C-alpha cells in the first residue's frame, strides 16, 4: 500500500506549488511590512528589554518566537484548509477557467505588492495588544495572522489561490499554507537563535528592500501569467504523468 502523505507531497500540483509557497513566505518576511518590525517582535514576545536582547537569552527568545509563529500558522492553515475544501467543492472536471480567473487575481496581488492600487495599501490590523512575554506571544501571532498588510496579504492570497485552483482537499490547502508559514516563520526562529548576527543580517535586507519588493511582486505576476495562459496547468499535468509512471513509493 502506498504512503498517502508521500503521494500528496509528490503529486504534480504540490511539487510545483510548495516551492512557490515557501518562497512566498520568505518574501513576506523580507518585505517592508515585516522586516523592520522584527526587533520589536523579538522583544515583545519574549518580554525582554534591550539589555537582555544583547545578552542573547536564546531559550526565552526562541520560545517566544516559536509561540508567535505557532499563533499565525494556525490562523493561516485554517484559511488554507477552507480554500482547499472550497476548491474541492466548486471545481468541476472542466474548470480551467477557474485557474485563469485566479491567475488574474494573483496578477492583481502582485501589483498590490509592488505598491500599486492605493486602496489596498492601507493596513487592517487588530490593535488590541496582548500582554508582552510568553503568554501573549501566541495571541500576538493570531492577531498578526488575522490582519491585512500590503506586503503579506498578497503573497498569502497567492498561496490560497493555488490551494483553491488545485481543488483537491482541505488537507492539501492546509499543507500548502504550512509550507508558506515555514518560509515566513523559520527566519524569525533562526534570528532568535543568533540575535546579534541575525539582527545584523537584517541591515543588508533593509538596504535592498525595494529590490526585494520588486522581486516578490514580479514573482506573483509571473505566477499569475502562468495560470492565465494555462502553462501552470500543463506543468502540473506533466509532473502528474511523471509521478504516476516513474515514481515508486515505499510500501
Automatic annotation (TrEMBL):
Belongs to the DsbD family. GO terms for biological process: cytochrome complex assembly. It comes from Arthrobacter alpinus. Keywords: Membrane, Transmembrane, Transmembrane helix. This is Cytochrome C biogenesis protein ResC. The chain crosses the membrane at residues 20-42, 62-83, 95-120, 132-150, 170-193, 214-235. Its main location: membrane. It is a multi-pass membrane protein. Residues 15-202 form the Cytochrome C biogenesis protein transmembrane domain. InterPro entries: Cyt_c_assmbl_TM_dom (IPR003834), Cytochrome_c-biogenesis_DsbD (IPR051790). It comes from the Bacteria. GO terms for cellular component: membrane. It is found in: Membrane.
